[in-house]
Amino acid sequence: MSATSGPAPRDASAAPGRPNVGYPSGHLGHLTADEEAALQAFKASLAGKGYYRPGPPRSHEDGTLLRFLRARRWVVQDAFKQFKDTEDWRATNGLGALYDTLDVAAYEECRGLYPQWTGRADKRGIPIYLFEIRNLDSKTIQAYEKSTEAYFGAATSKPAEATTMTTPTPTPPKLLRLFALYENLTRFVHPLFTQLPDRPHARTTPITLSTNIVDVSGVSLRQFWNLKGHMQAASQLATAHYPETLDCIFVIGAPAFFTTVWGWVKHWFDPVTVSKIFILAPAQVRPTLETFMHPADIPRQYGGSLDFVWGGPANLGPALRDRIAWEPGHAAFPKGPLYWRELDGGTRLECVAVGSVDKVRRMERVCTIPVIFPAREEQQQQQQQQQRQQVTEAAVGTVPEATANAVAEVDNVQPVQKLSLTDKDVLETKSVAEPTAMAPVRA
């Protein structure tokens, strides 16, 4: 089969003129009445079992909850199960503390094996990642796995046990590092692009997706086979515990034998994600990418003007650079784990560099940005509405019928003894630059 015909379920030729591909439908600010009802029922179900705190401050943002609902096709009971499994998995593996203390060099070693953020976003404001698979080989993967075992200790379970929605077990070392990259996506990259004012729906809809360019040129069938387990584990982890974080995936440079490879790959993703994978023939690459991205945000090797080197730092666009106020000594984002948290009563966000260097834990403010979403007035209205709803339900002792029905379906689930936060545990260590207590920002 030739690369022009492509085995993907969606033909790239259908992409021009339709850059949304479903977005923003099903996202905050664009919910149908039924979807809004499902969200409220989902919250009630989770709160009843100790997996969600409505606040203020609430334990999880609506954008995070909606990812699980979209992944489970708005079936509250199914979304509840996946969310519960994810929270239990996080607690079992101590992921909140792990992200805060992960060695920066170990993080960067893992980053070199997976898609990398270019520093840019597509026309919808969704961040763009690039994955050049030819940079990986079996020796690199073997060296990485040895390194992770030395860092974390021997694996205590099989990868499948850690990446399917079953009773949680300790996760293999190589996946514990991989989780940090997804945390970086949901806790650093997503909140950053959510605060860009020049994107569509900037005042109503947070960013919770990513656009990926996957370059498979120069990769042999043998190399694909040797990387099969590596890529499958990453796909399973995302599907099970970071659902609906992938949007369009553009596969570039597909060789003639890619039909065989596609036979493996299509089973690693859920059907919704598979429907967003485009196999691009050489003549389709530039026009298709330009439908979704501005030329300045497309890497040069694919017809754009962006200078981005695989393995190098993100190349921030002017819209981002203009909004960032760097702390003294910083002019770019440092290596290693990062996340954002609220500052000045929620009117700004600060970027905090965490992890450890030479076994010394770091906690350093890198920069700040102004908040545009949610608007301060909207935050206050949401908090007041939540408080009124809590008071009303406590006084009347009832909830809406749709909510009550969904809650009843999960009554057999035992409540957790302690709330586990999906996106991070609140750090006890205070910022060296700002000694005031600050609430964490969730994806």
From TrEMBL:
Coiled-coil ranges (or none): none
Protein name: CRAL-TRIO domain-containing protein
A Pfam match: CRAL_TRIO
Domain CRAL-TRIO, residue spans: 117-310
PANTHER family: CRAL-TRIO DOMAIN-CONTAINING PROTEIN YKL091C-RELATED (PTHR45657), TRANSPORTER, PUTATIVE (AFU_ORTHOLOGUE AFUA_5G09260)-RELATED (PTHR45657:SF3)
UniProt organism field: Phyllachora maydis
Highest taxon, organism lineage: Eukaryota
UniProt-listed InterPro entries: CRAL-TRIO_dom, CRAL-TRIO_dom_sf, CRAL/TRIO_N_dom, CRAL/TRIO_N_dom_sf, PI/PC_transfer
